[in-house]
Amino acid sequence: MSYLLGVVLFALAILISVSLHEAGHLLTAKAFGMKVTKYFVGFGPTIWSFRRGETEYGLKGIPLGGFCKIVGMTPQDDDVEPGDESRVMWRYPVWKRTIVMAAGSITHFALALVTIWILAVSAGLPNPDFPTTDAQARQEPAVIQLSECVVPENAVRACTPADAASPAAQAQLRNGDRITSINGTAINSYGDLLSTLRSLKPGETAQIAYVRDGQPATTSTVLAQTQRPPLDNPTGAAAPVAALGVGLVPSTPTRVTYGPVGAFGATADFTGQLAVGTAQALQRLPQKVPALWTALTGGERDIDTPISVVGASRLGGEAVENNAWLVFFMLFVSLNFFIGVFNLLPLLPVDGGHIAIAWFERARSWVYARIGRADPGRVDYLKLMPFTYAVILIGGAFTLLTIAADVVNPITLFSR
Questions:
Q1: How much of the chain exceeds pLDDT 70, in percent?
Q2: What is residue 302's predicted lDDT score, i.e. its pLDDT?
Q3: How far is CA 182 from the centre of its chain?
Q4: Is position 22 annotated as part of the catalytic site?
Q5: Integer Cα distance of 150 and 162 in angstroms
Q6: Where the protein is mainly located, per its record (predicted)?
Q7: Of 22, 148, 153, 361, which residue is the catalytic one?
Q8: Residue 184 falls in which region: left (phi positive, over 0), alpha (psi -120 to 50) or beta
């Protein structure tokens, strides 16, 4: 039940986000005097609606987004009633049209920023000093966390009854113990621990000195075998090495909480990282299509492949099921930021396409005025329809592929 609750909650959060996106268009358009005739949550048949002034508000039967109808978004719109010619959107100054079209993305960014700030003062944000690379991890003290087993191959997976038990657990070591030497070789860092283990052989007995709660002690165990690439070449071929069955407990916390004022700076820093990550994710989208197809046809799902609203909702369900509410809200932040950026891309039919055309018209008019030529007027959207349909077709196919992969072979963050 908690999983289903999480799925419903996340899907509802997305629906609310998209509805607020359209409300951003609605409110800014009305503020500038543009005529808005409809604002609906959902698509398809109307379930319920009411009219206030010149705008009809309501709820439709398919809760997959929403829409806001602004009269005269392009000169080619033919639904302008007599007397409304001065209120059509395309007649307004370019800066006003830009604000109206960007208001949806600004709403997503605002939702993300507010959520990040709340997390910063409550649950905490990822610690920028937390080791995220192998080089950083090897500088940490050799404070260990026991693994349940030793996986014989070079892979990250759940333990099975066939896997060897952790030698560290058999030696009665505990989480939080700091190893100080192995077979007389001093261990001053986690890197020293890895290097020393690589100098030993699977099946060899290791004499281990460690510190627990400030008290030194010793123990011994027989090392297991696993497969790992060379320490100086992580992409090299894996070979048999000795394994103790431990991981690293970093000396720095994974999250940091901030005061209400300090949270603003932390929010700005985290948002900058999020912006870089989103830009990189958008650049990788085309090259991830083969990986999505592989996942759909029975191959392993790459955790770095894109997810749809379906996949995000499933991850939200997993987060709630495992009481990982920070993961739930971080998914909400990431999705809102991604949608906000995506909608600003200079492609029709998304908002960024309309913004790009508005500024193209403005720049073209300026150039023509400088060279003494007549203003060429507005862009003919009808001539752009083939490009628009191409974007819709490609985007629709990619969305269907992503949804199918999320249904058939979803990404999971937790073992279920």
A1: 99
A2: 81
A3: 41
A4: yes
A5: 10
A6: membrane
A7: 22
A8: left
